[in-house]
Each structure stands twice: as C-alpha cells, then as structure tokens.
Design a protein that fits this description.
This protein is α/β, with parallel strands linked by helices. Helix content is 31%, strand content 26%. It is globular, with a radius of gyration of 24 Å. It starts with a strand and ends in a 7-residue tail after the last helix. The chain binds flavin-adenine dinucleotide (FAD). The site of flavin-adenine dinucleotide has 37 residues, from helix 1, strand 2, helix 2, helix 3 and strand 4. Belongs to the class-I pyridine nucleotide-disulfide oxidoreductase family. This is Dihydrolipoyl dehydrogenase. It is an enzyme of class 1 (oxidoreductase). It catalyses: N(6)-[(R)-dihydrolipoyl]-L-lysyl-[protein] + NAD(+) = N(6)-[(R)-lipoyl]-L-lysyl-[protein] + NADH + H(+).
Length: 468
C-alpha cells in the first residue's frame, strides 16, 4: 500500500515512556516519529496523572497547614474556594510542561503525528487523525508506549457524579459526601485533595489494608493523621451495587465492614487500578504477543517477541509508574541501536503524595519476613528531629532495612513531610550497595529531615542510642 511517512524509529504514545524514548532515539541520531492520539503530549502522567494531582495536592497542603497556624498564634479566616480558578491553575501547570515537551520534540526534529495508531504489519502503523484522515507510517524499529487506562467496573452506571481519576482531577464539584472505591495511592491522593476542599470521605477496599505494598508501620502513621477525614473506612469490603438516584449515588456494600444500609453519596471515585492498552493497538498484526490482560511481554532490553519492536512503561507491567517508564525508554532506544543496554534496576521507589507522604523502596519489612530474608532494621523517629518538630511533622519516621550479614541497605520506608523527596537517598544507597557505615558516616546537613536517613543508619550501628 501507500506509505506516507518513512522513519528509522516509530514511537507509539507520548507519555513519559514514549517521549523519553523518542527524544533518546533522536539524540542518538535516529529519524524518529512520535504518534499520539491527543493534541497534548505527556500522556497520563502530565495531563491526567502525576502532575495535575500534585498541583492540587500542593494547594490542599497549604490549606491544611493554614488551619493549624492557630497554634502558632496566626489566625486565618475560613478559605473561600473558587473552583474555576483552581482548575485554571492546575491547567496552567500542565500546559507549561506539555508545551515544553512540544518544544523539545521540535528541537530534536522528532516528527509528532497526531492520531490513533494501529499496527497493520510488522513494519507499518496506520494513524487515523481526528478528522478521519489516515496516514501509513513505515518504520525500521518501533517502541510501543501506549500506556494504560483506569479500570471500569461493569456494574457501575454512567453518571457525572461517578468519576475515575481523570474525572476527579477535573474537579466537577466539591461534594459533601464522597466515596472512594479502592484505597490505593491514586484514590488516597484524590481523597486528600477533596477532603482539604471540604468533602467528608468514605473509602472501601477489598483487601485488609489501605495503601497496599507499603510497610504497615508507615501506613499506621498516615492512618492516624488522616482518620479525621473519614467517616467510614471499610476494609475487606466490596462494592456490589451502584445506582444513580436523583438525590445522590446509592451504593451497596458487602463484606466484613460493610454498613447494613446502602449509602448515599454526592460523588463516587472509582480507583480500582489501571489496565494496559495492549489489546487496543492491533499488535497481533505486527506479530507481537500480548497477554490476556493486555500486557506486552518484554525481555531485559525491553524487546518484544518481534526483535525490532520494543515496549515500555505501563503497557509492559507493574509497577505502573512514570519513573520506571522513563528508564525503560532509554534502555529501549539504546538497545534498538544495538547498544548493550539492559533494564537492571535493583529497586523502583513508590510514593503516595498524601499528607503525610508515604514513600518506600526495595524490600519492606513484611516482604523480608515473608521471603525469609535475614534482615536487620533501624527506625529513626522524627520526634527526635529538631527540623521535624519545627515543621510540625514529628509523627513521621524513617526506617531502613539491612541485610543482616553484609549490613548493606536493601530497603527503606519513610512517612512524613517530603518523604517522597527523602526516599531518593535510600534509592541511591541501595543501587550503590551502601552499607550502614557508608550512610551513617555521610555528613547530612543539619537541621533537615534527610538527616533522619543518616540517623537511622547510626541507630543500626548502635551509634545513636538515646532516642525517645
Ligand atoms: P501513558 O502515560 O499512559 O501514555 C500513553 C500515551 O499513549 C497516551 O498519551 C495515550 O493517549 C497514547 N496512546 C495510547 N494508545 C494510542 C494509540 N492507539 N494511538 C495513539 N496514541 C495512543 N506515576 C508516578 O510515577 N508518580 C505519580 O505521582 C503518579 N501519579 C499518578 C496519578 C494519577 C491520577 C494517575 C492516573 C497515574 C499516576 N501515575 C504516577 C502513573 C503514571 O501516570 C504512569 O505510570 C505513566 O503515565 C505511564 O507512562 P507511559 O508512557 O507508559 O504511558
């Protein structure tokens, strides 16, 4: 058939995985085409994920801190919320970044083609633009970075008062009563935002705890601080019925902590996970394998079963995180050029940007126990940190997990203000194979929260012994 565009490298999807792969490929000298269905580059992360959620979480944090200033002798009046302005602020943050990407693509001569891409062969992708016009792109190599989207529960009706994370970020209203279905990171971040804006919250989770994957000791601190936001935290409980009524959304629960009566809500957020887009891009036409769930299997070079086609990001599996996608992107672009690049991360950090933040990396204490790893641990309570006390954050703590034999750090968790920033040091320590002495003898600036990482190592070494 007709070929409209010919390239060395085709990248499908312009999220953090896709734009990073395209930019790296172009920097390495490949003639690169980046295909994206939406006008705005940046994918889920920049448009409806990481970035807008953090813009709103920052607003929420300022609001909440202002409320506690009474204890410092500073009184503010009750806040007046102008939702239109808040939405505009969030959009401005997003556009600044997505606009930047467009400029970076141009600077590298990455050709951006807007439209929905579908494979039509092992070296051809057809792109259908919004106006229905079609283009065929022939490529020598390809990187699939088509991402994921929210899971929709089949029994939940369509109604403007029922939203997924994308809908919640649009801030349709400030509900009086809000239900969050699914107590993972995304649900709890949005809960934090809506609570700060005045909503009362319920959360329902099928498993036996919120924020699965995180160390339970960390979650306890989060839960204690956040208890006032919630009327009802329902664990080991399922949502079994959702009905759109005139006066609200009527939800029926089943399980250990289910209320007997159905409950009425003004807004329901469904945040029960994300599903990969592997089955929506006709990869079978290219001979690329895809699992029943829609993930594309890859090797350590991010190569699919078809040697000239790579896949990265949410579409290749968990954890579905932007920083993982970016690193996989660089590996794929380099491997496509024949470099000996491999995805070989020891650890990938996770962060809940809630208040307080909860961050963890590597082996958690529960995992160490389950896997029979001989470990040692050290906890530095922030009640012993001058900076944490000054910041009103002394309920936080820093925990490090060490290999018992080598004293190398193999994991860590932090709960408290800026935990997401602080965990970076633990990531580096694990990757570098640092042991407790390396961390403890590193001079950290005083007074900071990052000192707590050094102090935890000293606790492990028995250097720092008189803790509260
Ligand atoms: P995506 O970002 O999903 O991008 C895929 C792109 O491909 C999209 O732009 C899509 O339009 C395009 N596409 C798909 N199919 C086609 C097609 N057929 N044709 C053309 N284009 C197509 N991660 C973090 O690390 N930190 C966070 O704080 C964080 N917060 C989040 C908050 C929320 C509310 C959500 C929903 C997610 C969050 N994530 C966060 C996860 C993060 O957004 C994803 O891991 C990341 O975006 C994955 O990048 P990706 O490149 O694999 O795919």
């Amino acid at each position: 058939g007709n070929v409209d565009i010919q390239c060395d490298m085709l990248v499908l999807g312009a999220g953090p995985g896709g734009y990073s792969a395209a930019f790296r490929a172009a920097d390495l000298g490949m003639n690169t085409v980046l295909v994206e269905r939406y006008e705005s580059l940046g994918g889920v992360c920049l448009n409806v994920g990481c970035i807008p959620s953090k813009a709103l979480l920052h607003t929420a944090q300022v609001l909440e801190e202002a409320q506690h200033m009474g204890e410092h002798g500073i009184a503010f009046k009750a806040p007046k919320v102008d939702l239109d302005k808040l939405r505009a602020h969030k959009s401005a943050v997003v556009s600044k970044l997505t606009g930047g990407l467009a400029g970076m693509a141009k600077g590298r001569k990455v050709q951006v083609v807007h439209g929905v891409g579908q494979f039509v062969g092992a070296n051809h992708l057809e792109v259908t633009a919004a106006d229905g016009s079609k283009k065929v792109i022939a490529f020598a190599k390809a990187i699939i970075a088509a991402g994921s989207q929210p899971v929709h529960l089949p029994f939940i009706p369509e109604d403007p008062r029922i939203v997924d994370s994308t809908g919640a970020l649009e801030l349709p209203q400030i509900p009086k009563r809000m239900l969050i279905i699914g107590g993972g990171i995304i649900g709890l971040e949005m809960a934090t935002v809506y609570s700060a804006l005045g909503a009362r919250l319920d959360v329902v989770e099928m498993l036996d705890g919120l924020m699965q994957g995180a160390d339970r000791d960390l979650v306890k601190v989060w839960q204690k601080r956040n208890a006032p936001r919630f009327d009802n935290i329902m664990l080991k409980t399922k949502t079994v019925g959702v009905e759109a009524k005139k006066n609200g959304i009527l939800v029926t629960f089943e399980g250990e902590q289910a209320p007997k009566e159905p409950q009425l809500y003004d807004l329901v957020l469904v945040s029960v996970g994300r599903t990969p887009n592997g089955k929506k891009i006709a990869v079978d036409k290219a001979g690329v394998q895809v699992t029943d769930r829609g993930f594309i299997p890859v090797d350590k070079q991010m190569r699919t079963n078809v040697p000239h086609i790579f896949a990265i990001g949410d579409i290749v599996g968990q954890p579905m995180l932007a920083h993982k996608a970016v690193h996989e992107a660089h590996v794929a672009a380099e491997a496509a050029l024949g470099e000996k690049a491999f995805f070989d991360a020891r650890v990938i950090p996770s962060v809940a940007y809630t208040h307080p933040e909860v961050a963890w990396v590597g082996v958690t204490e529960e995992q160490a126990k389950d896997q029979g790893i001989k470990y040692g641990k050290a906890v530095f309570p922030w009640a012993a940190s001058g900076r944490a006390i000054a910041n009103g954050a002394d309920d936080g703590f820093t925990k490090l997990i060490f290999d018992e034999a080598t004293h190398r750090v193999i994991g860590g968790g932090i709960v408290g203000m800026n935990a997401g920033d602080l965990i970076g040091e633990v990531c580096l320590a694990v990757e570098m194979g640092a042991d407790a002495t390396d961390i403890g003898k590193t001079i950290h600036p005083h007074p900071t929260l990052c000192e707590s990482v050094g102090m935890a190592a000293e606790v492990f070494e028995g250097v720092c012994t008189d803790l509260p």
